[in-house]
């Protein structure tokens, strides 16, 4: 096997993470490795025993682009799919669908729906219940397994959102906020492992605005003063996301300084995923969305958010909107294909990955 080119790693910590390798061919990158949860998962949850047969494997998921459920938590393509298209790299193989080096030559997706950054045992010690026994440390181990198989490496992925979701559902904003330094520490460890494997350009995305998720809005109704006057999102939840993003940027700055002092050629970039979503919610028509940016396209429960776990998207009693492209949220937790496209274009433009 030829020596691997320097890796570009994009670690989406709120919604996903990626890495690509430079090539001398038609495109700048040859393949991609992804980490994260359902915002990045393109098939692992459909195979993993705990989640196999879940809602993402049933209609109406996948209807817009694939015409059938594809294991993705959306009506169509994810941010990862758009990155693959724009960067002209092969679709990475879901880790659980491969066995040999040949299976992973085109890249690997380690993301699994429901995964957290922090280990389930640690979350349990904080009174937080996770539903899938997979964390970033597991995905990093999978990555290292593939690296050994290939004797080289490349990446993309997102993770971190579920830690905060579970904390908010199980406890309070204070508990969620207390997880920030632990999550950033776990991301730092994963980042170090990626760099050790050969990554030289690393793009890490921040946390999305948690308080704008229809799920959170429906489950935690508040008084008028609890909502941002422009977006109508839960302000205190979004403060947790902002705290996460500040800590993440600080960690990246420290990492840059550390590697610079060692004379290492390493580029660490921060990709903002928070503001594109906030802008789409605040000014939906400007970005091509309809007048219900905080409502789920697919689901049940009615009201301003159309979210209820008993009539979750794809279950009896749920309905699907006529035009998903006019909605930011697909099922109250995950984005529509249209929102994923917007976020990807913003990321690529800001990071100039195609230049």
Notes on the protein architecture:
- By secondary structure, this protein is of the alpha/beta class.
- 34% of the residues lie in helices and 12% in strands.
- The protein is built from 10 helices and 10 strands.
- Strands 1, 2, 3, 4, 5, 6, 7 and 8 form an 8-stranded mixed sheet that branches.
- β1 and β2 form a beta hairpin.
- α1 crosses α10 and α3 packs parallel to α6.
- The N terminus is likely disordered.
Quick structural gist:
The protein has 355 residues and is an alpha/beta fold. It has helices at residues 79-87, 120-125, 136-150, 161-170, 173-178, 180-196, 214-219, 235-261, 274-282, 337-351; strands at 7-12, 17-22, 29-35, 93-94, 107-109, 155-158, 199-205, 267-271, 298-299, 319-320. A hairpin with a 4-residue loop joins strand 1 (7-12) and strand 2 (17-22).
Keywords:
single chain; 355 residues; alpha/beta; eight-stranded mixed β-sheet; two-stranded antiparallel ribbon; 10 strands; globular; disordered N terminus
List strands and helices in order, with pairings.
Elements: E1 7-12, E2 17-22, E3 29-35, H1 79-87, E4 93-94, E5 107-109, H2 120-125, H3 136-150, E6 155-158, H4 161-170, H5 173-178, H6 180-196, E7 199-205, H7 214-219, H8 235-261, E8 267-271, H9 274-282, E9 298-299, E10 319-320, H10 337-351
Radius of gyration: 19 Å
Oligomer: single chain
- What share of the residues does DSSP label as strand, in percent? 5-15%
The biggest beta sheet is recorded as: 8 strands, mixed
Number of helices: 10
Distance between the termini: 28 Å
Question: What coarse outline follows from CA principal-axis ratios?
Answer: globular
> What are the low-pLDDT stretches, counting only 5+ consecutive residues below 50?
1-27
By secondary-structure content and strand pairing, the structural class works out as alpha/beta
Order of helices and strands: EEEHEEHHEHHHEHHEHEEH
Number of strands: 10
Percentage of residues in helical conformation? 25-40%
Query: Taking all residues together, what is the mean pLDDT?
Result: 85
């Amino acid at each position: 096997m030829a020596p691997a080119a320097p890796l570009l790693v994009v670690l989406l910590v709120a919604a996903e993470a990626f890495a690509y390798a430079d090539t001398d061919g038609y495109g700048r990158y040859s393949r991609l490795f992804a980490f994260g949860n359902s915002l990045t998962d393109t098939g692992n949850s459909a195979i993993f025993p705990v989640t196999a047969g879940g809602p993402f494997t049933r209609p109406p998921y996948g209807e817009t682009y694939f015409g059938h459920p594809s294991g993705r938590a959306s009506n169509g393509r994810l941010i990862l799919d758009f990155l693959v298209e724009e960067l002209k790299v092969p679709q990475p193989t879901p880790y659980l669908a491969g066995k040999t080096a040949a299976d992973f030559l085109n890249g690997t997706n380690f993301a699994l729906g429901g995964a957290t950054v922090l280990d389930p045992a640690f979350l349990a010690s904080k009174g937080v219940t996770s539903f899938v026994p997979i964390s970033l440390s597991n995905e990093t181990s999978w990555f290292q397994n593939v690296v050994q198989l290939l004797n080289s490496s490349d990446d993309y992925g997102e993770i971190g959102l579920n830690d905060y979701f579970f904390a908010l559902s199980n406890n309070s904003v204070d508990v969620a906020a207390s997880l920030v330094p632990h999550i950033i520490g776990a991301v730092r460890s994963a980042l170090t492992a990626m760099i050790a494997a050969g990554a030289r350009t690393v793009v890490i995305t921040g946390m999305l605005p948690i308080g704008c998720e229809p799920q959170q809005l429906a489950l935690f109704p508040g008084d008028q003063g609890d909502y941002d006057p422009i977006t109508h999102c839960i302000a205190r939840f979004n403060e947790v996301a902002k705290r996460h993003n500040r800590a993440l940027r600080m960690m990246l700055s420290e990492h840059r300084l550390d590697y610079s002092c060692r004379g290492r050629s390493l580029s660490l970039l921060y990709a903002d995923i928070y503001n594109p979503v906030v802008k789409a919610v605040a000014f939906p028509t400007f970005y091509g969305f309809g007048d219900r940016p905080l409502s789920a396209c697919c689901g049940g429960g009615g009201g301003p958010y159309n979210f209820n776990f008993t009539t979750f998207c794809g279950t009896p009693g749920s309905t699907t909107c006529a035009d998903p492209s006019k909605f930011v949220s697909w099922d109250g937790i995950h984005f529509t294909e249209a929102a994923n496209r917007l976020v990807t274009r913003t990321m690529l433009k800001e990071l100039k990955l195609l230049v």
